[in-house]
């Protein structure tokens, strides 16, 4: 089936995706081409191939998928959520344009909508993989897992990959998960997968909940701390009322931009972000995207940066 999705003005599919996914580290499970993105996604217990194409910036998305169970309306709804097409970025972009130290990146990020994982489970596992390693390294580790235990199929002359289900991860041994480079985080991931399979953890139900309620549910789980919860908010829950300000990457880039190249503390970031009002989480999100896309040049983060030693 082929359908279309309307997008916000100036929306740039590839820039939005490449702010999270490196073109040379794929599949994660997404893969990108010159005009779009493809992956497998789970609908109604069926893993279906989805190919999304955008012929030019601002044009409608062309979506092709094959399914025996999923309805067009359901697929489009999930993709709008995954691509962040319903997130209002106008206020954050206005703050960037008005900020003398950031207005030079406003054009480069004007087409970005916040790309997210299609399931909360996928977002949470990816976020745990990101703990204490560079974002690029986390993508490399995710790719190893996808190639080893993720579902795949051939579709339109492409090999299309999906993210392992909780059941597939739960069936793995700890040693197998550790072989992907997860180290001690293999235990966290394995435990969460088992909790989902056993019905003790219902992750999709976290969507729409207040950040404090999400924290009260997740923080007691072994391997999940405040950084993970706040990162999950922007990577899988579509909650942009918060941001992981403890992240070393954002602290470093803000230090280079606003603090004479000295890494900023969380307290300093709290003071700094008041200049952007209620839009501050999305402003930080766009700064992060600009950094990954290389829009800051030498002011950007170093490739080897490590996340701070916390969960």
Structural overview:
- The structure is a single chain.
- This protein has 13 helices and 7 strands.
- With about 300 residues, the chain is of the alpha+beta class.
- The protein has a 5-stranded antiparallel sheet with strand order 1-5-4-3-2.
Relative helix content: 40-55%
How many structural domains are formed by the residues? 1
Determine and state the CATH class: Mainly Alpha
CATH architecture: Orthogonal Bundle
Low-confidence stretches: 302-310
List strands and helices in order, with pairings.
Elements: E1 2-5, H1 13-18, E2 31-32, E3 36-43, E4 46-53, E5 61-65, H2 72-82, H3 90-98, H4 120-130, H5 135-149, E6 152-155, E7 158-161, H6 166-171, H7 174-182, H8 185-197, H9 211-218, H10 226-235, H11 248-258, H12 266-272, H13 280-292
Antiparallel strand pairs: 1-5, 2-3, 3-4, 4-5, 6-7
Helix pairs in contact: 3-13, 4-8, 4-10, 5-7, 7-8, 9-10
